């Protein structure tokens, strides 16, 4: 593959002629919309048909049950695993299934030979992570046993291949209990042929302060679970100052620390499939960014005649624009930033990647991945 950065005056016709590829292929691969306008600085995927794949990797994607059937159908060929988001539970260990039906997602996953994974989250009634709910279950042997039994029943009945434990804001005092919970879950599920993974907040040291980090012991959890997902995203988030969602320099720091305590073959690198649009000026505690898709971000740049720039340190695209008298700053992912993450994946020989989340199709991402790696099925 090649990456073409659009310059002033270029069009789909001139670019397709430059690389001697059909215009329709350029349009399809990059999800261009009629009349096929381009933004200066836009990165385009160019297929050269000379793919040299390095090795097999695992590819996971999280999806809510309200995902478009078309998006899921176009994404599943590139997935090893489909994590259904999400199941909850009560303080007594009763399993709470998603509100919407999920059987259709599992059936589609089976069709494309992707393993469906049950994602377990401790959400309260408002949809927020509840650390008191976590504490009440992992410190109660009866509740833990009930939850494991209920999960085993669901895995067997639905055909899931395993469980992803996505717990956040774990209390510092529950650090050991959470590790034991994951170990118990792994021991029990592995005995029946199911796998267990655990999502890890992006730490750079064992004693990193903060509610996101203190309850998770990288080394112990890496040993307890079959594999882990590094949640290497959300540096830029809804209430942050405008910045890259997953700056590669920050991502690298997390990976470097993780590799000191977890084997590379157990680590999946988290990749965001979205960006943010911040209104300016930024006011802490007041400004709220809007979540946008990567294709949507480029459309915003086109519609507002904005030039897309590229931060070489974060290795992430961004741009600014003004609409209705309000200034905006946008950070998102393109195939340059995705390729930088793939470079890190290959450099460190990690197990694979995990996408949060696959609700919007970003075809150039999947084509880039497929041009570089074999996808384990």
What would you note in describing this structure?
The structure is a single chain. With 377 residues, this protein is α/β, with parallel strands linked by helices. It folds into 2 domains: 50 residues, LysM domain (Membrane-bound Lytic Murein Transglycosylase D, Chain A); 260 residues, TIM Barrel (Alpha-Beta Barrel). Helix content is 33%, strand content 23%. The protein contains 12 helices and 17 strands. The strands form 3 sheets. The chain has an 8-stranded parallel beta barrel, surrounded by 6 helices. Strands 12-11-15-14-13 form a 5-stranded antiparallel beta sheet. Helix 3 links the parallel strand 3 and strand 4. Helix 11 packs parallel to helix 12. The radius of gyration is 21 Å and the shape is globular. It starts with a strand and ends with a strand. The model has no long low-confidence stretch (mean pLDDT 97).
Which strand order do you get reading across the main beta sheet? 3-4-6-7-8-9-10-16
* Uncertain parts: none
* Overall SS class: alpha/beta
Shape: globular
Q: Count structural domains.
A: 2
Topology diagram in text:
Blueprint: E1 2-5, H1 12-19, H2 23-29, E2 43-46, E3 56-63, H3 69-75, E4 81-89, E5 95-96, H4 103-111, E6 115-120, H5 131-138, H6 141-158, E7 162-165, H7 175-190, E8 195-200, H8 218-224, E9 227-230, H9 248-258, E10 267-272, E11 275-280, E12 290-292, H10 294-303, E13 309-311, E14 316-323, E15 326-331, H11 335-348, E16 352-356, H12 363-372, E17 374-375
């Amino acid at each position: 593959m090649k990456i073409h950065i659009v310059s002033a005056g270029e069009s789909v016709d001139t670019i397709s002629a430059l690389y001697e590829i059909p215009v329709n292929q350029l349009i399809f691969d990059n999800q261009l919309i009629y009349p096929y306008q381009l933004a200066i600085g836009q990165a385009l995927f160019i297929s050269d048909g000379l793919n040299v794949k390095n090795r097999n990797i695992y590819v996971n994607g999280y999806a809510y049950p309200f995902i478009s059937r078309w998006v899921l159908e176009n994404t599943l060929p590139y997935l090893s695993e489909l994590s259904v988001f999400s199941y909850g539970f009560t303080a007594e260990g009763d399993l709470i299934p998603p509100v919407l039906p999920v059987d259709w997602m599992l059936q589609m996953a089976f069709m494309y030979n992707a393993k469906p994974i049950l994602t377990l989250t401790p959400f309260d009634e408002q949809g927020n992570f509840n650390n008191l709910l976590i504490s009440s279950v992992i410190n109660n042997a009866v509740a833990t046993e009930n939850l494991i039994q209920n999960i085993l029943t669901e895995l067997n009945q639905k055909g899931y291949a395993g469980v992803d434990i996505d717990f956040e804001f774990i209390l510092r005092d529950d650090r050991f209990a959470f590790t034991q919970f994951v170990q118990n879950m792994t021991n029990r599920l592995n005995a029946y042929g199911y796998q267990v993974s655990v999502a890890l907040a992006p730490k750079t040291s064992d004693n990193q302060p903060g509610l996101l980090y203190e309850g998770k012991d990288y080394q112990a959890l890496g040993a307890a679970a079959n594999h882990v997902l590094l949640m290497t995203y959300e540096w830029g988030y809804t209430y942050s100052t405008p910045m890259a969602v997953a700056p590669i320099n920050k991502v690298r720091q997390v990976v470097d620390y993780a590799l000191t305590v977890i084997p590379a073959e157990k680590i999946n690198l988290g990749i965001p499939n979205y960006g943010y649009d911040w209104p300016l000026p930024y006011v802490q505690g007041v400004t709220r960014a809007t979540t946008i898709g990567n294709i949507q971000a480029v459309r915003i740049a086109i519609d507002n005649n904005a030039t897309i720039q590229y931060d070489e340190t974060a290795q992430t695209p961004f741009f600014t624009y003004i609409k209705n008298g309000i200034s905006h700053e946008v950070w998102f992912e393109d195939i340059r930033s995705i390729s930088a993450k793939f470079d890190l994946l290959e450099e460190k020989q990690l197990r694979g990647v995990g996408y949060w989340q696959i609700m919007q199709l970003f075809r150039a991402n999947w084509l880039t991945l497929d041009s570089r790696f074999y996808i384990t099925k």
